[in-house]
Specification:
It is a single chain. Helix 1 (about 1-30) runs parallel beside helix 4 (about 75-95), helix 2 packs parallel to helix 9 (about 185-215) and helix 9 packs across helix 10 (about 215-225). Helices cover about 65% and strands about 5% of the residues. Strands 1-2 form a two-stranded antiparallel ribbon. The chain is an all-alpha fold and about 260 residues long.
């Protein structure tokens, strides 16, 4: 019965993921019908926020360790994927569009923004493939559980876009929310909330990977910026002097996988 339940949960998770991606594509593309409502801006801001909170909390090492007491590690990725999908679907279903337009591009501008939108989808799929899309959705650990084979250790080996910047997935997602020919007030609220969250989440991810990988990730941060053109702050290149000031900092931990999905 446990195996049947695990099999059902894994399959249902990835069906839910596919449905969510489909709805998210059309939602971000701007398929919603604007209305004349103005009192919905606060609701939309809360809907945008309710996705961000569990999305970050469930990745915190302390939260993760506590939940793993009741959720087997092979299913934690699926659980995380389910929570992410449900919060996104709740936001999409409850969203209250507004007809007030901030900008509406036409001609070459509209074409360029539309191309940027589709290019951002290609970029996010490419970036996720570099880190292992199966880890992002929980498929890989679940599949190894189903086959009864041990999960291979993930090595931290930056390739492709990760040699140029630390957060190509997040940068691609920024493109999804800003490349739109029609920017209404509600879309601007979504873009503002999620952009702020992306930069905060990028910093949290750096801290999380530093916790798991220690000095190897510190050296990576010293040579690769979080985003292009960021001259200072937590998302710029981090000088290696931090190692000298923190000689007791983590070395690469042997009791956890050497790389965690974001």
């Amino acid at each position: 019965m446990r195996r049947i339940a695990g099999l059902t949960f894994g399959i249902a998770t990835h069906v839910l993921f596919a449905v969510t991606v489909w709805h998210l594509f059309w939602f971000l593309k701007g398929s919603t019908t604007p209305t004349d409502a103005y009192g919905s801006m606060r609701v939309d801001a809360l809907l945008a926020l309710q996705f961000t909170v569990p999305h970050s909390l469930l990745l915190l090492p302390a939260v993760r360790n506590r939940l793993r007491r009741v959720i087997p590690s092979a299913f934690y990725g699926c659980y995380y994927c389910v929570v992410t999908c449900l919060t996104l679907l709740l936001m999409i279903a409850s969203w209250q569009p507004c007809s007030t337009i901030i900008w509406q591009a036409s001609g070459i501008g509209q074409t360029a923004l539309t191309i940027g939108f589709f290019a951002s989808w290609i970029a996010i799929l490419y970036s996720l493939s570099l880190t292992g899309l199966g880890y992002q959705t929980g498929w890989t650990p679940w599949w190894h559980w189903l086959r009864g084979t041990p999960l291979p250790q993930r090595r931290f080996e930056p390739t492709g876009a990760y040699r140029l910047l630390r957060h190509p997935v997040y940068l691609s997602f920024i493109g999804l929310i800003w490349f739109t020919p029609l920017m209404t007030i509600d879309r601007a609220i979504l873009a503002g909330v999620w952009t702020s969250y992306i930069f905060l989440g990028s910093s949290l991810k750096d801290r999380r990977l530093t916790f798991y990988l220690g000095d190897s990730y510190r050296r990576y941060k010293a040579s690769v910026p979080g985003y292009p053109g960021v001259p200072w702050g937590p998302l710029a290149r981090r000088p290696l002097q931090a190692l000298a000031r923190n000689p007791s900092g983590n070395k690469e931990r042997s009791d956890v996988p050497s790389r965690r999905a974001a």
